[in-house]
Amino acid sequence: MMASDVLTIVLAGGRGTRLGPLTNDRAKPAVPFGGIYRIIDFALSNCVNSHLRRVMVLTQYKAGSLVRHLTQAWGFLCRELDEFIEVVPAQQRVGESWYEGTADAIYQNIYSIEKIPCRDILILAGDHIYKMNYKSMIDRHRERGADLTVACLPVPREEGREFGVMRVNDSGRVIDFLEKPENPEPMPGHPDQVLASMGIYLFSKNVLFDRLFEDAADRSGQSRHDFGRDIVPKMLTSHFVDSYPFRDENHKTPAYWRDVGTLDAYYAANMDLVAVDPVLNLYDREWPIHTYQPQEPPPKFVHDEPFSGRRGMALNSLVCQGAIISGGQVQGSVISPRVRVNSHALVKDSILLDNVQVGRHAVIKRAVVDKHVRIPPGFTIGLDPWLDRARGMVVTPKGVTIVPKNHDLDRFT
């Protein structure tokens, strides 16, 4: 398969309101993850590892941080060889409205898309954590002569309300598709599971264009111009819509795919990385996750005074370049670049983003601290949810405290 056969479009304009305050200043795909990555790095790495090197990234909401990251991390493809990751901002080319849905986002850029010769168009969300070889999906799509192929995987039935839920026949053809149903229908023989769409769509190019023009011309007011709610269900009776069971390149059991659409899901996915045998394998050289690597020195651990309890150490944690664990202790946590943990401080089961400074004797437990926050000496986070809320932080339904970017904690001392 040649790279010129397929154009990949990554939808990266989402607000990610359920990830606030982490999305107060950035789009959801630009939210940091796992210390040095951004969420969008996983979809883009899947593309490069699948030998798909012609990618358009559609942006909209607060895209500055995302565009900067893409420029820094993903500028290595060679345009002279017809390889590119091209950022396409919302332009209101076909009207005065911003994107009204996932299908409308592509329709509004159809003028740019149709200039790129290709046979099929792969549409991805830029806000999921997973490893997948898209080439296998493309091969199946072509072998079976499908008009549209939708990637899918089983999820617990109680989570089905958050996804498009599919039913397929014995050959794998999609016969029913409901977006975020209130009472999702279980899989045959599996009463506790539903077959969920992963938001990965592979269209034959002409079929996609026809469906987008048809949807845009709908004047009934019923269409939300969304693939899951409108495009896919309408195609079931007129086109061959095939399913593609997710094949995980993570090589673990069970298959790893995370929609980090809520703060608790985001926290849990990061915590997946710090186990002795991490659920998500970032160390597979055959399927690397690419990102921007800041020019920082190696992480440093200083002070070892066992009698006073002053020891710089980290256990079951990720500690990134430029971080200094200066006499403090880190347990089960993700420590991003340029973080400093000072003497006698404790950071446990937490995620500290870039340039967080932890003062002496401070205690942080089950928290996500966004960039450029200074935690005063003796300060506590994650021990008292009522106190955390009173200090302007967010506490999730599962009790994780979120500290907004640049949050001024000194005024509470």
TrEMBL record:
Family matches, as CDD domains: ADP_Glucose_PP, LbH_G1P_AT_C
GO biological process, one term: glycogen biosynthetic process
Pfam families linked to this entry: Hexapep_GlmU, NTP_transferase
Main enzyme class: transferase
Residue span(s) of domain Glucose-1-phosphate adenylyltransferase/Bifunctional protein GlmU-like C-terminal hexapeptide: 297-403
Chain positions of site Could play a key role in the communication between the regulatory and the substrate sites: Q60, W98
UniProt similarity note: Belongs to the bacterial/plant glucose-1-phosphate adenylyltransferase family.
Function: Involved in the biosynthesis of ADP-glucose, a building block required for the elongation reactions to produce glycogen. Catalyzes the reaction between ATP and alpha-D-glucose 1-phosphate (G1P) to produce pyrophosphate and ADP-Glc.
Quaternary data: Homotetramer.
HAMAP family per record: GlgC
Identification of the protein by name: Glucose-1-phosphate adenylyltransferase
Species the sequence originates in: Isosphaera pallida (strain ATCC 43644 / DSM 9630 / IS1B)
Gene it is expressed from: glgC
